[in-house]
Amino acid sequence: MTGIAEKHHTTVSSVILTWIVQSGNGVAVKSKSIERVSENFKVPYTIQKLNLKLLLFFQSTTLQLTDEEMVKIKELDLSTPYVEDRGWEVV
Q1: Which residue intervals of the chain are DSSP H helices?
Q2: For 15-63, what is each residue's pLDDT tens digit?
Q3: Quick one: pLDDT at residue 67?
Q4: Where are the transmembrane segments (predicted)?
Q5: CA 23 to chain centroid
């Protein structure tokens, strides 16, 4: 994950969000940090026209993972905990 993030000059969390969206799944993100909220808009979400006006406050660039990167992430060992989950608090 770190290697893919470094290649795209982004964060691991952006890679994860992009993989989820490119896999055809929805994702709900939460953050108290303006920087994180802005970072989350780099993920290529499909946006309804009605909601587009709400997003004009953010400048976004779109991250696109290659097919090879998508497969590499999908093949990660799911039995290995990569983060410690405490509900909304991620350590």
Answers
A1: 2-7, 12-22, 34-40, 49-52, 67-74
A2: 888 888 888 777 777 777 777 776 766 666 555 554 555 554 444 456 7
A3: 93
A4: none
A5: 11
Q: Tokens 């808009």: give the residue.
A: 41
Both structure tokens of 76: 């990660």
Closest to 75 measured CA to CA, from 29, 7, 19, 28? 19
In the DSSP assignment, the letter for residue 78 is T
Q: Which helix (H) or strand (E) holds 86?
A: strand 85-86
- Hey, what are 78's tokens? 């799911």
**Using CA atoms, how far apart are residues 49 and 20, in angstroms rounded to an integer?**
22
Kindly list the distances between the CA atom of residue 43 and the CA atoms of 6, 11, 13, in Å, as whole numbers in the listed order.
16, 11, 10
Question: Euclidean distance between the first and final Cα of the chain, in Å?
Answer: 17
Q: Residue 89 carries which side chain, given as an amino acid letter?
A: E
